[in-house]
């Protein structure tokens, strides 16, 4: 087990300041987030999206109005924790809910993180990394792909569709199971 208190004391990490900054960033609207993002070295990443620099990220989120699609979107962030092994990083969990045209979605728990530089600006923002694909009704997908799929508006490419085992992997699993039976 990692002794976080000792690591924080040795590194001078201000846990409360980082937690406050992370909560403020996630609660901010997109324009406010823009002011909180580093101008020089920002990267946005999702499981299949990115890296996007600041300009590309802000253009993408303002050009795709998620609150028009899901007017009752609630990201439901919780579990905020400062990473004792990576300076300036704060992790949180999101289990978003919302609806579109009467169709409701609930995402699986997703890891979210922000890295803050010494001036308090966000240098990295990650979202959508699913922690348990068996939860929710989004086909095991997080980010925006899962909610869109759940309400019948899925995007037309493989990365925006629920996971489906390949034939090659199914064969590999079958052979592995068969081999383990013979070993017994």
Considering the chains and any ligands shown, give keywords for the structure.
single chain, 184 residues, alpha+beta, Nuclear Transport Factor 2, Chain: A, two-stranded antiparallel sheet, 7 helices
Describe the overall structure.
The chain is 35% helix and 21% strand. It is α+β, with helices and mostly antiparallel strands and 184 residues long. It has a single domain (4-183), classed as Nuclear Transport Factor 2, Chain: A. The chain has a five-stranded mixed beta sheet, with helices on one face. The chain has a two-stranded antiparallel sheet with strand order 4-5. The longest helix is centred in the C-terminal third of the chain and has 17 residues, at 167-183. The two termini are 35 Å apart. The mean pLDDT is 94.
Brief sketch in words of this structure:
The protein is an alpha+beta fold. It has helices spanning 4-11, 15-27, 30-36, 54-63, 66-69, 145-150, 167-183; strands at residues 43-45, 77-82, 89-94, 97-100, 103-106, 110-116, 122-130. Helix content is 35%, strand content 21%.
